[in-house]
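Let us practice reading a record.
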Amino acid sequence: QNSLFVRPTGRVVGIIKRNWRNYCGVLLPSGNKESIRHIFIPSEKRIPRIKIETRQADILMSHRIIVSIDCWPRSSRYPLGHFVRDIGPMGERETEEEVLLLEHDIPHLPFSQAVNDCLPKLPWSIADYEFVLRED
């Protein structure tokens, strides 16, 4: 009778690999101009701020950048990460479009030459007999 109410339990003994990804966002201006440690604010509000080290802070301060999380020590309030790349200046249309595509994991890189070779040669048009069969 008691075995019907026993709930299976367990405990986490370790995490082999976290599913971290790259995050887009901006650097928070720091009070010390000489400092190499900075706080990164991700565009996605559910992600905590990330501590990074960079000597390019004066250049990156007005840019959207990509940061990757390396680890999250128990004693730290924020995870530790590193600068991956600069997307571009804040407010520019191309930069903001790339941030949206990256944040939603939408592939946006150009097609490879192998894919382009599969396409019909230009100029290409729909044959007349296919117009009759189309429903759109």
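A brief commentary: The helical segments are 57-60, 93-103, 113-117, 128-133.
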